[in-house]
Amino acid sequence: MMQTELLTKNRNIATIGEEITPEQGAEFVNNYRKAHPNDVKAYIIGKDILTQILAQPGCAGIHFYNAVNEFGQKTLVYVGLDQDGKEMVNYTVVTANAEIKKEKGIVADRSIPTPGGGDIFGDDGWFYID
User: Fold this and answer.
1) 14: pLDDT confidence band, cut at 50, 70 and 90?
2) Which end of the chain has the least Cβ crowding within 10 Å, N or C?
3) What angle do CA 11, 17, 32 make, to 5 degrees?
4) Contact call for residues 63 and 76 (beta carbons, < 8 A)
5) What is the residue extent of each domain of the chain?
6) How many CA atoms lie within 13 A of 72 on its CB side?
7) Which 3 state secondary structure label does DSSP give 12?
8) Which helix (H) or strand (E) element contains residue 31?
9) pLDDT tens for each residue of 49-95
10) Rounded-to-integer distance, Cα 11 and Cα 70, Å
11) How far, in Å, CA of 80 to CA of 91, rounded?
12) pTM, rounded to two decimals
């Protein structure tokens, strides 16, 4: 909790993250792979679930967790964050009838691990960094 407070204090959650160059991306990924050669290389997550999470009222970002699923496979679990950095497992809405109601937030998984070596996409196909 303290780390989350330090990371998000006086910070707009929606603005966290920035574009980097493909070369920086390749360098960062290669650094990780050298340090963790037997780890999962990457995951694919579809646009639809990310859009659903971000479309929740008050959602300002997404928190990704390393996890192990029911099959013993490494995966990611992801959940929306509000502007205060709180996970949106539940959130409050006001209905058309002016009723205050709790809604269940989206907690997601089922990303697909990316096999093989290259997973930074370049102009002419996969940009291999091995």
Assistant:
1) very high
2) N
3) 125
4) no
5) 2-127
6) 0
7) coil
8) helix 22-35
9) 999 999 999 999 999 999 999 999 889 999 999 999 999 998 888 88
10) 35
11) 10
12) 0.74
